[in-house]
Amino acid sequence: MKRISILIALLAFNVTLFSQEEEKEEKNNLQVFTPSKLLNKGQWDIKWFNGLYTQTKQTGPNNGDSQDIARQNFFTSTLEVFTGISDNNRINVGGIIEFRSNTFGGRQALSVFSLEDTNTDRKGISSIAPSIKIQPFENIGNFSIQSAIHIPLLESGDEQNPEGFLDQTAWSFQNRFFYDYTFASGKWQLFTELNTEYGFGDDKSFANNTFLVVPGAFISYFPTQEATVLAFVQHSERFGDFEQDNTALGFGGKYQLTDVLNLEVLYSNIVRGTNFQGLGETYSLGLRALF
What we know:
Blueprint: H1 2-26, H2 29-32, E1 44-59, E2 66-84, E3 91-103, E4 121-134, E5 143-152, E6 171-182, E7 188-200, E8 210-224, E9 227-240, E10 244-256, E11 261-274, E12 281-290
């Protein structure tokens, strides 16, 4: 009987180990490959992210008092492509390209998708950005830094185009710091980001000689292996030759469609701001392929 008891205990122990290993293997890209994690050598990450921001209110100069304005809509479609290039999986390189479509004068939010050419809309590819992403500390795999030079494709002075604003014409040097922490249960994950940008190169641009600092915190819950729901808060502070700030709250979710592809849906609302800051809402949809 003693031998049988020992055999049963060993079998139970092996089954437990196997179950834990199987559960670990079941973790998908949503949990493993957060923005903090770098790609393995030869791996590719392609993200197509689309955000529609619409506003009918903005703050006045130097204070938080809001005022009504004719609806303005700003659509940004961003394509990011990265790949791992180092044997130690600590260096990724890639590029970012941005397309924008903006409409003004009280037009409806979905007018940004119209093919009609009027004097109340602007559209086109606005910038490209070669990028590099590194894991600076070998023993902290959930911390990384992404650096990029955003090169405007617009001419100097284009921000004052009478048909409306498309994008800034200043160059931008951007550094994004990523860190995530998964709690012991494996069901909760905290992701933090600090985005910093320095604008330079075009004296006519509002962003020239300014610094932008955007901290953000995201809390995610994984009800299943295929899905996550999340809530977040972000603050944006620009200072230098032009000063402006805002705070946004939001929520959303992600779903693993296949082993390669996942879907992301987000909503955010700018709840406060200063110095002609828009007080609007953003609706975002993203697709990410990881292979």
